[in-house]
Amino acid sequence: METLNGKHISLRALEPEDLEFVFELENDENIWALSNTQTPFSRYVIKQYLENALKDIYEVKQLRLVICDKKGNSLGLIDLFDFDFKNKRAGVGIIVKNPDNRDKGHGGEALKLLVDYSFSHLGLHQLYCNISEDNKRSIQLFTNNGFIEIGLKKDWNFNQGEFQNEYLFQLIRA
């Protein structure tokens, strides 16, 4: 896959050199609730994951891209998951690692690039995302990019001793 270039950021495939970046991100307990992670990942497991990340989306049913600034610095990750070619849909997830890099438009630009790529190159008909009811920043990001709330899953996730509701958002190709 070629690099997807935007005005301020680009999306690129994972490289072996991303080991430490992905390791730190996946082991950040502050974002475990977003990814339903329960335990830390070893460098060995992340290294194996990176080796398999080169496989085709049609084989592994997911695509993870690194969000980079114009200097090539890694800012975060954006994913297509549960890729379903038959039904032409996939889930979307996004995280910008450093809080200082959030609310600067990087996530919105990355999401727009991924949506365009999904519809024009992968031929998808729809994308969806699952967002915790209290994650106002993500709700705004996805609604600003055309995703529509289609449902609320009550008591869907159990985090820090309590159940939390989760919204389901969907974007259908026009």
TrEMBL record:
The keyword DNA-binding does not apply. GO terms for molecular function: acyltransferase activity. Gene3D superfamilies: 3.40.630.30. Residues 9-170 form the N-acetyltransferase domain. InterPro entries: Acyl_CoA_acyltransferase, GNAT_dom. Pfam families: Acetyltransf_3. PROSITE patterns: GNAT. It is an enzyme of class 2 (transferase). Its EC number is 2.3.-.-. Keywords: Acyltransferase, Transferase. Signal peptide: none annotated. This is GNAT family N-acetyltransferase. It comes from Hyunsoonleella rubra.
